[in-house]
């Protein structure tokens, strides 16, 4: 029968021997190692009672096995990080997982400040204006193919100015008569409607939306009295001081098209040769 000085499992006497307590029960070293030792994540061998057991997130290692999985340097009493269940020293973790600076291509070490722009990363000291070489930080910037610029340097080197508001055009814009406008500044000279996405006409070097141009300047068809814009290659007929849409240039009696055909006139009417025969007419 086991006594308080016997191994809880094999009942051998522990007097004068090394033993280990587990849940207040004594075990000889052999039984303890067999039933209670944790297994090392690296070598898969038991971590016996005479070895130091290093634990991290319910995982265990021998002291000699607790190493970086990439460079194999010991992690005992050294900082480390975990990635995908692997333990890495800070240098290997930085090289594998940290961002690379878009300018100098070196690792941006954890804890150091980094700048992000258009999906790329910079050291704070590398994220500088291409012209004055001063750090941009969180100040406004303008990006070109040649690099990033602080606003004062961009205006000094590259800026073009709007013909209407005289302010800098930083991107996009509309060109008309070899001059530039902000999209929001390129307006109809009549009703002030934005024209950047609209068809427009010009008169005396001023842009007009179609409604204003037709109302103010377009000739009117002698048949339908609607404006003749001439947009998109639309054809029209001129005779003396009158104009017609090509689809409106028809005989006043039989309505046959007179485009490309001979015709006769009488007063303000036009007729095909057949209908106009016998009438007093002008050529």
Automatic annotation (TrEMBL):
> Which compartment or compartments is the protein found in?
Nucleus
What's a GO biological-process term for it? positive regulation of transcription by RNA polymerase II
Listed transmembrane segments: none
Q: Which Gene3D superfamilies match?
A: Cysteine Rich Protein
Grouped into one coarse class, the protein's main location is nucleus
Per the database record, which ranges form the LIM zinc-binding domain?
38-99, 160-219, 220-282
Annotated Gene Ontology MF terms? transcription coactivator activity; zinc ion binding
A GO cellular component entry from the record: nucleus
InterPro entries linked = FHL5_LIM2, LIM_FHL1/2/3/5_N, Znf_LIM
Coiled coil, from the record: none
Function summary: May be involved in the regulation of spermatogenesis. Stimulates CREM transcriptional activity in a phosphorylation-independent manner.
Record note on quaternary structure: Interacts with CREM (via the third LIM domain). Interacts (via second LIM domain) with SPAG8.
Name the record gives this protein: Four and a half LIM domains protein 5
From the broadest rank down, the organism's phylogenetic lineage runs:
Eukaryota, Metazoa, Chordata, Craniata, Vertebrata
């Amino acid at each position: 029968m086991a006594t308080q000085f016997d191994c809880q499992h094999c009942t051998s006497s522990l007097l004068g021997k090394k033993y280990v307590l587990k849940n207040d029960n004594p075990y000889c070293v052999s039984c303890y190692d067999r039933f209670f030792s944790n297994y090392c994540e690296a070598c898969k061998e038991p971590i016996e009672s005479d070895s130091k057991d290093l634990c991290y997130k319910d995982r265990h290692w021998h002291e000699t096995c607790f190493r970086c999985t990439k460079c194999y340097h010991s992690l005992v009493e050294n900082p480390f990080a975990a990635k995908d269940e692997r333990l890495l020293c800070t240098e290997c973790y930085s090289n594998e997982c940290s961002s690379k600076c878009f300018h100098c291509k070196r690792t941006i070490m954890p804890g150091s400040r980094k700048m992000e722009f258009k999906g790329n990363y910079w050291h704070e000291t590398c994220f500088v204006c291409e012209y004055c070489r001063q750090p941009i930080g969180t100040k406004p910037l303008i990006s070109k193919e040649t690099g990033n610029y602080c606003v004062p340097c961009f205006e000094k080197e590259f800026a073009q100015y709007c013909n209407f508001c005289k302010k800098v055009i930083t991107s996009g814009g509309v060109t008309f008569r070899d001059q530039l406008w902000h999209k929001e500044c390129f307006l109809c000279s009549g009703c002030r409607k934005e024209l950047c996405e609209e068809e427009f006409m010009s008169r005396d070097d001023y842009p007009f939306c179609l409604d204003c141009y037709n109302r103010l300047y377009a000739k009117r068809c002698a048949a339908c009295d609607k404006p003749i814009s001439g947009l998109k290659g639309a054809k029209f007929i001129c005779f003396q001081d009158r104009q017609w849409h090509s689809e409106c240039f028809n005989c006043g009696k039989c309505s046959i098209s007179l485009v490309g055909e001979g015709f006769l006139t009488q007063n303000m009417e036009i007729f095909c040769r057949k209908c106009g025969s016998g009438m007093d007419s002008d050529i």
